[in-house]
Structures are given as C-alpha cells and as structure tokens.
C-alpha cells in the first residue's frame, strides 16, 4: 500500500491515481462514458476505441496453437463456468466490465500444484478480422512456477481480460506479445504511459536523460516488486523472495510481539514499501539500517 498526501479542493479530495482509489464493478453501467477531460483517459486516443465502450456483436474469428509442456493444461472454455472466474478480477473500467460480462469463450490455463515448469507455455492467438470479446483465466497451483506467453497476431480488435489466480507460494511470469494489425492496439500502450505519468513523472522533474532513466528504473522496480495490483487480488507481480513469516501467527490482523512493520522510501518519499521484520534491539537495527533490501531485514 502506498500512502500519499491528498490535497482537497472545493469538490472534495483529488484522486491520487493509486489502484486502491479506483472504482471497481462488474456492472458496465456503473461506469460513466469517459471523455477527454478525465485525467485517467487524458492521453488515450478515445476516438479510436469509442465503440468498445458500448456493447457490440462479436464478429471476429480467433484461431491459435498452444504449446503446453508437461505439468500444465490449456482448454477453450466458457469463462463464467469456471469456479475461479471473478476470483481475482473486478473490472476497473467499462471495457473490462463489458468483456467480463459478454465473453463467451476464452482460454483456461492450469498449472499443477508444485509443478516447476521451465519451458514457457506459449499461447498463439491469430485474429482474422472483425472484433471480439475474450476472457482468459490463468490458474497457477500452490507452490508452482511457470511462464505464460500470450502471442497475439493477425488483424482483429479485441476487448478482453486476462485473470490470474495464484495459489499460495506460486510464481508466474506473464508475457503478452501484441503483433496485431490494428491501430487500436496503441491504446494499451497509452494506458501504461498514463500510469507512469500519474504515479511518477507528474511529481518529479528530471534534470537530464540519465536522471530520467534512473527515475524510471526505480519506479519500474517498485511497480513490479512493491506496488499492489488490483488485478492480482490485490497482489504484487514479482514479490520479494525473502519475506519473514511467523509460524505462530494467529490472525492476519495482528502482528506478533517479536515483529514490526518497517518502511522503505523510494524516489525521495514519493512512494513507500513496507515489510514485516523481526523486532531487533535499537542498537542492532541502527547498525543494520543501511541495508538496501528492506525485505531481507
């Protein structure tokens, strides 16, 4: 969780851009149609994707080939029939909610509990014109490790979701390759750029190209390792490997007597990351506080 100061004005608090502040719902009608004045959609080419904010009749065809190593299984399913459907994803915009509501098919990727799959699971999806709704669900069993690659090609316009459900101790690398002959694919990149701007560059002044690169490097590390993502539960895409757990923890709402919460500041205090650490005597902590990896403390 990132704590930020929220200034107020005559119409109430300003949005911070944090995922925790975003409205979520499975009902598409709960979202207003965006306009160019909305901060969240400010740099998105709305004219190119306007039709996706209203229901449409899918007329596109998607074919593909799956490369699935041992320990995994991939099936074409009706997403709403899955037990894990909606377990990790609550849409944060109208297009995602429409896709979740109207997708009649999608891929269900399952990785067995405890499986350590080295070769990537490659899912080649080839579109042949038109438009479509899709909702893919990736189920990773407890203590499993895998890499899933979605390789999108062809000429099609897609409104879709990828819902990821991770079991305890599971690790997943998710790669999306988009080589679609569609100008609307650029809108996805614009959304990522908007996130970088709202959560990082709007608050800092780069003094040079090297300074800008160092800022982005620090923010990308925070984005992947410390920032909570709503689509993951919320969770972190690549959590730190060394996290202290208490064997006698009785409640997730209480911290054991020998543990404390420590904070690490990033980008001059713009963001913070928090870890659960053993409570050390003040003298030992003062000697150790120079440790750069707060999660290893």
A few lines on this structure:
With 297 residues, the chain is α/β, with parallel strands linked by helices. It is built from 5 helices and 10 strands.
Structure description:
With 297 residues, the chain is α/β, with parallel strands linked by helices. It folds into two domains: 8-232, no CATH class; 242-297, no CATH class. The protein is 17% helix and 30% strand. The strands form three sheets. Strands 3, 4, 5, 6, 7 and 8 form a six-stranded mixed beta sheet that branches. Strands 1-2 form a two-stranded antiparallel sheet. Strands 9-10 form a two-stranded antiparallel ribbon. The protein is globular. Mean pLDDT is 79; it is low at 1-16 and 283-297.
CA-atom Rg in angstroms: 21 Å
- The low-confidence runs, each spanning 5 or more residues with pLDDT under 50, are 1-16, 283-297
| Total beta-strand segments | 10
First-to-last CA distance: 19 Å
What is the count of distinct domains? Answer: 2
Strand content: 25-35%
Mean pLDDT: 79
**What would you call the structural class?**
alpha/beta
Main sheet: strands, sense, barrel = 6 strands, mixed
Number of helical elements:
5
Query: What share of the residues lie within helices?
Result: 10-25%
Shape: globular
* Oligomer type: single chain
Order of helices and strands: EEHEEHEEEEHHEEH
């Amino acid at each position: 969780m990132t704590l930020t100061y929220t200034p107020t004005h005559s119409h109430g608090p300003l949005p911070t851009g944090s995922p925790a502040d975003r409205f979520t719902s499975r009902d598409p009608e709960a979202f207003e149609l965006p306009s160019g004045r909305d901060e969240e959609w400010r740099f998105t080419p709305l004219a190119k994707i306007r039709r996706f904010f209203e229901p449409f009749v899918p007329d596109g065809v998607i074919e593909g080939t799956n490369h699935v190593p041992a320990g995994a299984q991939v099936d074409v399913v009706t997403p709403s029939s899955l037990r894990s459907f909606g377990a990790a994803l609550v849409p944060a915009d109208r297009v995602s909610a429409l896709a979740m509501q109207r997708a009649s098919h999608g891929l269900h990727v399952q990785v067995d509990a405890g499986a350590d799959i080295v070769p990537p699971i490659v899912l080649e999806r080839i579109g042949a014109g038109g438009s479509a709704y899709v909702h893919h669900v990736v189920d990773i069993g407890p203590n499993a490790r895998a890499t899933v690659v979605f390789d999108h090609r062809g000429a099609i316009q897609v409104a879709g979701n990828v819902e990821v459900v991770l079991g305890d101790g599971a690790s997943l690398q998710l790669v999306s390759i988009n080589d679609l002959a569609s100008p609307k694919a650029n809108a996805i990149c614009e959304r990522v750029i908007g996130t970088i701007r709202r959560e990082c560059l709007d608050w800092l002044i780069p003094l040079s190209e090297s300074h800008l690169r160092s800022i982005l490097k620090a923010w990308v590390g925070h984005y992947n390792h410390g920032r909570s993502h709503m689509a993951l539960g919320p969770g972190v895409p690549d959590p730190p490997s060394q996290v202290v757990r208490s064997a006698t923890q009785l409640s997730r709402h209480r911290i054991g007597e020998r543990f404390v919460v420590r904070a690490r500041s990033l980008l001059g205090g713009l963001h913070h990351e928090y870890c659960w650490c053993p409570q050390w005597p003040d003298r030992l902590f003062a000697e150790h506080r120079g440790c750069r990896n707060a999660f290893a403390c």
